[in-house]
Fold this protein.
Amino acid sequence: MSDLTPETAATAGVSSGDPERPLSLKVCMGWGVGSLGMAVMFGLISTFALSFMTNYLAISAGVAGALLGLSKIYDAVTDPLMGVISDRTGGSIGRRRPYLLAGAFMLAATMVLMFNVPDFATPTGAAIYMTAMLLLYATAYTVFNVPYLAMPAEMTEGYHERAYLMSFRVYGIAGAGYVGYFGGPIIIDYFGGGRAGFEGMAWVMGAAVLASSVACYYFTKDAPFKHKVDSAPVGFKAQVRLIMQNRPFLWLMLAKMFGLLGQALSNPAKAFFFPLVLGASLSSFGWYWFAFYTAMTVSQTFWLKLGKSHGKRDIFIAALLLTVCINLTWLLATPAEAFGVTLLRGVALGFLGGATLLMGQAMLPDTMEYDLRITGLRREGVYAGVYTTIEKLAFAFGPAITGIVLAAMGYVASSDGIAEQPDSAILAVYICAAGLPAITGLLAALSLLGYDLTEEKLKATKAVDVASEGAQITAR
């Protein structure tokens, strides 16, 4: 139950209703489906862009990785800016929702353009084109994702209701796994593989991205948002100082940085791992992701119950440590490995991934409410912007590191997808797919030891009045 008085709640823009009142299934599903389009884009580009550029555009692995990295660093500016913009937006349809609609069309267009590359005389021309597309993708993703992630903190004040709402985001991401990771490789093969396969896949996936993102805009029209929030003016330095006071948020961001870095290393590496190490087809790669996301989907009820009894942070840590152990088994994989073993590994990683994704996402709006209570300011957009910046930085360094390691260890780029690779390049794939993600997973678990925001601590933190506190902050 919130400690805000009705008067303070009105000043801060907080609902004074029952914080544990359940959201409707329609609203939860409508918000959750928005993650499907984003995850399709995010997954396909983070997994296939590096191999697409090196194997079909003749761009060297090092240059391709650098391009992916630079496009994400660009987001270090745009994400926080988008957070501030959405915080300050007013309107009768909710201050976040207009950006969902704009982002939907931008994302769909980017999906098509990213893999329908004109023929260039040299790899340099292709690299310039891909740089422009990666920057367009980064902008589109920011326009949709930052306001989208700020919405849950406004939709409910319930500690466990947030975890329930976030489970629908996990379902959406799992659905994206079926559509993108499973369906994508099969569609590429259906259209004949190679560049033609990627071109056909991009049109199909662009339609899926548009449909799910527009559906999110439509089905969240009845969600309990704040249409206009008046907060005391706070300068940039004061904003940074206040965020630094939110220690749970800082520890969560450090953990997410390491966890997402591991994902950013392993996902593109697996696109090399399956054909080079396992000798598997793209369709087999798709079936691996089918097993992964099926396990993630069915895991949600289990993790929701366990999170209530054992706490979000502890479940997060345990799942990370078990994921480290499973990731290390990739080092034992060979072309002789039965595909059933590969699928079982996917099931285990998907089941554990359901916990890390759910708990990490559910803890984010908890830290937003904690900020509201200690500062009296509604800054969900700012926090969402910082979170997505961390996400983008992780996926800047991940593909860049993968590309650098592959290039340094002799990976041979080509324009037709066919090139004999030296043993050193195969070793590099093992390192990026298994070794480095295990290290980052361990670092993420260690970071969470500093996170201490329990349900009891959150309820015990007395909310302040935004007007008086804001005036004090501004004066300082």
